[in-house]
Amino acid sequence: MLNVADAELLVKQHLSDTPRADHSRFVAHIMRALAPRFSASTDLWEVVGLCHDLDYFYTHGNWSQHGLVTVAWLGDKIPAEAQHAIAAHDHRTGVQADTLLADMLKAADALAIIDEKLGRTSLRNADRTAPYPALRRLLGDRSYLSDILKRYANRHGVPFEDLIDVVARA
Q1: 55 close to 70: Cβ distance less than 8 angstroms
Q2: 99, 104, 155, 158 from 152: Cα distances, Å
Q3: Could you read off the pLDDT of 51-81 as tens digits, one per residue?
């Protein structure tokens, strides 16, 4: 299996020193932090987070292939469950995956994008009584990200406060 150090090298190779590389590292941080909650492999979850956007620049403009190209590149270096999670993380591929790993990748990806768009302070200061509607209002044309985060966090019992704690530790 691909280890974290090798996945980091792939991020450097395919994403260079771009904001997309930073995004992938942040998703990996979130995934690694969430894995113990589910008694999952922290290394596997971090690798999935690091690798999920390796093909970002290669598939730019053809989002129906985003994630699928990464899976082809990685082949059997990652388990089938990880391949499926990466292939399904962008709905435009048409690939469906409802595994815990796939759901948490979608949530981590949405959370990282929300953090990038709003900034850490706005995210931390979101209305705790109704955080998802508050995020929806703040996100404007990307309000669907709040829905994605809510869907998968609620499905797997991850409280909003726990998500904010993970972001704050980044």
Answers
A1: yes
A2: 11, 7, 5, 8
A3: 999 999 999 999 999 999 999 999 999 999 9
| Integer Cα distance of 31 and 170 in angstroms | 12
Task: Give the contacts of 33 (CB within 8 A, at least 6 positions apart).
Answer: 166, 169
pLDDT at position 170? 85
Distance CA 28, CA 112 (A): 10
Question: Are the CB atoms for 149 and 114 separated by under 8 Å?
Answer: yes
Residue 41 makes CB contacts below 8 A (sequence gap 6+) with 35
Tens of pLDDT, residue by residue over 110-120, are 999 999 999 99
Specify the pTM: 0.97
Phi-psi category of residue 103: left, alpha or beta, with phi > 0 → left and psi -120 to 50 → alpha: alpha
Report the sign of the C-alpha dihedral through residues 54, 105, 47, 1, in that order: negative
For residues 12-24, average pLDDT? 98
CA distances in angstroms from 77 to 6, 65, 74, 80, listed in the order given: 10, 19, 6, 9
Quickly tell me which residue has 């691909």 as its tokens. Answer: 2
DSSP state, residue 35? G
Task: Tell me the mean pLDDT in the region 111-134.
Answer: 93
